[in-house]
Design goal:
The protein has 364 residues and is an alpha+beta fold. It has 2 domains: 40 residues; 316 residues, Endonuclease/exonuclease/phosphatase (Deoxyribonuclease I, Chain A, 4-Layer Sandwich), CATH 3.60.10. 22% of the residues lie in helices and 27% in strands. It contains 4 helices and 15 strands. The chain has a 7-stranded mixed beta sheet with strand order 1-6-7-8-9-13-10, covered by helices on one side. Strand 8, helix 4 and strand 9 form a beta-alpha-beta unit. The longest helix is centred in the first third of the chain and has 36 residues. It starts with a helix and ends with a strand. The mean pLDDT is 94.
């Protein structure tokens, strides 16, 4: 007696359907467990957090004495000229290799040691993150800037970022690092407003501002802000919230009689700069937008160098004349701070997708 072909086909189909359902169930369970784990371990810092000042120094700043400030987004020592980034239209999310991370870190640290500044504002400094091959960049930088006190403010702590799927970013611990050769009385982390919707926020940065208060010989304080604002929020909604908060904070310190310097990666085109000054075949990055005209607080001035770019588009590896470039790194200072000099150090984006900015100030 011959077997019924239709019956065999039905049995095979039923088995395939069962396997598919089991696979779908397993996938769904994995996603649910992942989201539950990420929600339970979500980094939720308070609105205000006191920060540790490591190796604080004794030197106190005086009015009439020039001092230097340098800002540099070091791109977790993985965004060298050969790198691209998936959020900007590329595919990458990690450094190319451990060796490349170490090379970038060594060269950035050598630059900082060769270009000594009294105050150094760094962004995207990793601590044992997957994307930078578990290198503790803070530890290495502290060794190279041994004459400075250090303040670290965590702004990105996620157990596992699952995108891009082909080579996920993985575990991240990163933040803002401020170095000072001058006495710091106190340091605080302020949480910035605005978050992405759940569950996207679980894998996003928890943006903040690092505030350092430096005493003056004549009395009063210099209040220094290290910042890294949002970039990839749709329509700039979160950025507007952050700018509103920051403007109010700067004004409050100024009205209180403080000298104020805010520096870092603004992730906006800065007033007085124009990306069309730098010809490029690539269209402007989708995230790029200029600072709103009404943002600059009364009594404040910008300190920037519009002649050289501070950031490049990372949709592709860097090629001069091709990648979109702009000025988004610089300083906003109260008018009781005299701006003596500002210059972008053109490193040709060799070891980061940003160029550093160095300024010399004097307190009036």
């Amino acid at each position: 007696m011959k077997a019924d072909p239709s019956s065999a086909d039905s049995t095979l189909l039923a088995k395939l359907l069962t396997v598919a359902l089991l696979a779908a169930g397993l996938l769904l369970s994995t996603v649910v467990l992942y989201l539950a784990f990420m929600t339970a371990t979500d980094f939720r810092p308070p609105a205000l957090l006191e920060l540790e000042i490591r190796n604080n120094t004794a030197a106190i700043l005086g009015k009439g004495t020039p001092f230097s400030v340098l800002s540099f987004n070091i791109g977790y020592c993985g965004m060298d000229a050969g790198a691209d980034f998936f959020m900007d239209g590329g595919r990458g999310s990690r450094s190319a290799s451990l060796q490349q991370t170490q090379t970038n870190l060594r060269r950035i640290a050598a630059f900082l040691a060769a270009e000594p500044a009294d105050l150094v504002l760094l962004q995207e400094v990793d601590r044992r993150a997957s994307r930078s091959y578990r290198v503790d960049e803070l530890d290495e930088l502290e060794k190279r800037l041994a004459g400075h006190g250090g303040i670290f403010a965590l702004n990105y702590k996620v157990p596992w970022v699952p995108v891009p799927l082909a080579r996920p970013m993985g575990a991240v611990e990163s933040g803002l690092l401020t170095f000072s050769r001058l006495r710091v009385n106190s340091a605080r982390r302020f949480r910035l407003p605005g978050k992405e919707a759940w569950p996207r926020q679980l894998a996003e940065l928890d943006r903040c501002v690092s505030e350092c208060r430096l005493p003056l010989k004549e009395g009063g304080e210099l209040v220094l802000f290290n910042l890294h604002l949002s970039a990839f929020d749709r329509g700039g909604r979160i950025r507007r919230q952050q700018l509103t908060w920051l403007r109010e904070r700067l004004l409050a310190e100024y009205k209180n009689g403080s000298h104020v310097i805010a520096g870092g990666d603004w992730n906006h085109g800065l007033p007085g700069s124009d990306p069309e000054r730098f010809p490029a075949t690539m269209a402007p990055s989708a995230w790029y937008m200029a600072l709103p005209p009404g943002f600059t607080p009364p009594g404040f001035v910008w300190a920037l160098d519009p002649t050289r770019p501070t950031v490049r588009a990372s949709s592709t590896p860097y090629r001069p004349g091709e990648n979109f470039v702009a000025v988004i790194d610089g300083f906003l200072v109260s008018d009781n701070v005299a701006v003596r000099q500002v210059s972008v150090r053109d490193l040709d984006f060799a070891n980061s997708d940003h160029n550093p900015v160095r300024a010399v100030f004097l307190l009036k």
